[in-house]
Amino acid sequence: GRKTAYVPHSDNAGNVSTTYSDGITLDSTAPTGTVVINTGASYTYNASVTLTLSATDALSGVSQMRFSNDNATWNPWVAYATSYAYTLPDGDGPKTVYVQFKDNAGNISTSYSDSIVLETQAPTGTISINSGATYTTSASVTLTLSATDAGSGVAQMHFSNDNTNWSEWETYATSKPWTLSVGDGSKMVYVQYKDNAGNASGSFSDGITLDTVDPVCSILISGGAPYTTSASVTLTISASDATSGVYLMRFSPDNSTWSTWETYATSKAWTLLAGDGTKTVYGQISDHAGNTGSCNDVIILDTVAPTGTVVINAGDAYTYVTSVTLTLSATDTLSGIYQMRFSNDNVTWSGWEGYATSKVWPLSAGDGNKTVYVQYRDVAGNSSTSYSDSIILDTVAPTGSIVINSGAAYTTSPTVTLSLSATDAGSGVSQMRFSNDNVSWSTWEAYSTSKSWTLSVGDGAKTVYVQYRDNSGLTSGSYSDGITLDATGPTCSIIINGGAIYTSSASVTLAISATDATSGVFQMRFSPDNSTWSPWEAYATSKAWTLTVGDGSKTVYGQISDHAGNINGCNDVIVLDTVAPSGTILINAGDAYTYVTSVMLTLSATDTLSGISQMRFSNDNLTWSDWEGYATSKVWP
Question: How many CB atoms are closer than 10 A to CB 39?
Fold first, then answer.
C-alpha cells in the first residue's frame, strides 16, 4: 500500500524544523486483466483483428502490455490501452492471442488469452425467385435461398435489385419475401452470403419477368353486329399484353359459369343462352404471368320475325289510278323494324328498302281487284310472312243524267228537285256534286237519286250541272238539264164595264189586262167573293160575267197564272143598281100658262143607291134630248 517516511531536522542551536515527509507505494501484486478478440466474435475472415483489453491494478496501476501467439514468444511491451490492432498468424484455423499486463511497480501479470477462428474462404450459394417461375404478377416475390460454408458456416445474407444498392445484412434463412424494383419488365434479384467469420460471397442472382398489367382484350360478337337471329355466333377476340404476352382465354354467358381455359385464338364459336333478348358474352384473357383481363360484348338475340299491316289508300275499297299510297305499320319487340319490300303477286318482290310508314306503289295493269303484299325485316334480319291488302282498280268514270222538277219547263221557286241517275260498271257510283255554272261546284256528297237544289239568283233560263264520282274516285263529265225560273207572278187588272161605277144589269163585261215577263200569261179565273172560283180558263182580255144577285156594291176578283204557275190577283168594284130614280118636274113653278116658249123647269129626283146622275128631256116622250148632268132647274124650250 502507500508508505510515508517523516523526518524533522534540528540545527546545532537546537532548533527543530517542521516535519518533512515523502511517500511511496509498495506494490507487490501483479495486475489482473482480460483480452477479447473482435468483441468476442467466434470467427474472423481477416487476420487483422481488434483486441479489446481490460486490466486493473489496485495500487500502482497498469502501465504496459505485451502479446503472444503461443504464450512463449512475446512481442515487445507497449503502453497499456483498452484497444489494440493485432495481426493473427497466417493460416485458417483456430487462433489464440495471449496478453500480459505490467503495472507501474513492475509487477507482471499472468497470461490472459482469447481465441477466434480465422476463416478467409467465403460461402457459396444460390437464389431462386418464386421457385424458378418465369413470370410474376406481383412485385412481392418469395426468394428461395441456399448457401454453404465449409468453415464457420453461413451466418447472414443481404439483397439487391441492381447489384449496387444492398439491403441490410440479416440472419441467413432459406426463404425471404422480397419486393422487386418498380415497373414491369425483366427483373434480377441479387444475394450475397456472409459466413460467421464475416467473409462475404460474391453475388448470386436469379431473374424473373414482372408483369402487373392485365392483358387488354375486346370481344366482338358476330363482327360487332347489334343483333343476331341465331344463337350460334362467332366471337372475334383481340388481346394484347406488352410484357408476358397473351396466353389463355375462357368465356362465360353470365360472368359466373366459365368455359375451361384454352389457348388464346382470335376466333371462337359460341352458343348464346336460350331465349330472345339481350345477351352478354364475357371473356377473360390471361397472360403468361397469370394476369387476367376481362372484356365483354352485347348482342340482342332476336329469332322472332316482325308483325305488321298494310293498308292501301287509307283503307279505300276502290281507286281510279294505278299509283296508290300504302300505309304501313310494323312492330318488332327486340331489334326493331329495318326494311320492307313489296309485291303485286306474292312471288316477284321489289328490293329491300328502309322501313317507312308510307309508300307510293304502282298496281298491276288492268281494272279489277288488286292485292299488294308487303314483307318486313327487322334489324336482326328476321323476315316476316306476307301481309296484304286489296283494292279495286276502276279507271272508267261513271255515266249519268239529271232532270229538274221531273222535266218541267218552268219553276216558280229557285228550290227545285233534281232527279238523278248514274251508273258505274266498276266500283259503283259513290258521290255527286252540283253547279249552276259548270265552274263553281258544291262539295261532294253521297250519291242519291233525288236532290233538293237552289237555282242561281234571278228569273230566267237556268241550267243545273251534275258530276258523278265512283268509289274509285273517278269523276264523270258534266251532265245538265235546263228550266226557266219564274218566281215573279203576272201583273193584272180587271175593269168592269169599262170602268163604270154603276151598272143596272148583273151581266157585265170584264176587261182583263195581264203581263208576265218570263213565262208568259197562261190562265185566268174569277170569283165574286175571293173564295169560290170559276174554273181556270185560257187567258183572254175580255170576259162576260154575271154579278151576284141583289143591288149593291159588287167586287169581281180575278187570278192570273203564268206558265210557271205563279198566280197574281186583281179586282174591280161596281155598284149594281137595278132600281130607277124617282122624281118630279114643275114648269115655271107650277104655272098653268106661259106666254113664252122658254120655260123654267124645276126638277127634283131621288135614287137610293147610285144617286141622281143625269137627266134628259122630251116634248113628246119619244124624242129626247141628250143626257146631261142632273140639276134642279133647267131652261127648256
Answer: 9
- pLDDT, mean over the chain: 95
**Residue length of the chain:** 637
Closest CA to 57 of 12, 3, 1: 1
- Taking each continuous run of H as one helix and of E as one strand, the counts in the chain are 0, 55
C-alpha atoms less than 13 angstroms from C-alpha of 69 in its C-beta half-sphere: 9
Structure-block grid coordinates of residue 232:
350460334
Predicted pLDDT of residue 2: 86
Distance CA(486)–CA(26), nearest Å, equals: 185
CA distance 130 to 136: 8
Collapsing DSSP states into helix, strand and coil, what is residue 589?
helix
User: Distance (Å, rounded) from C-alpha 115 to C-alpha 120?
Assistant: 16
How many Å apart are CA 261 and CA 247, to the nearest integer? Answer: 10
CA 193, CA 176: separation in Å to the nearest integer?
Answer: 13
455 CA to centre of own chain: 56
Which three cell numbers mark 279?
A: 345477351
153, 172 Cβ separation under 8 angstroms: no
393-438: pLDDT as tens digits: 999 999 999 999 999 999 999 999 999 999 998 889 999 999 999 9
Contact 415, 491 (CB under 8 A): no
623 backbone dihedrals φ, ψ, rounded to 5°: -100, 125
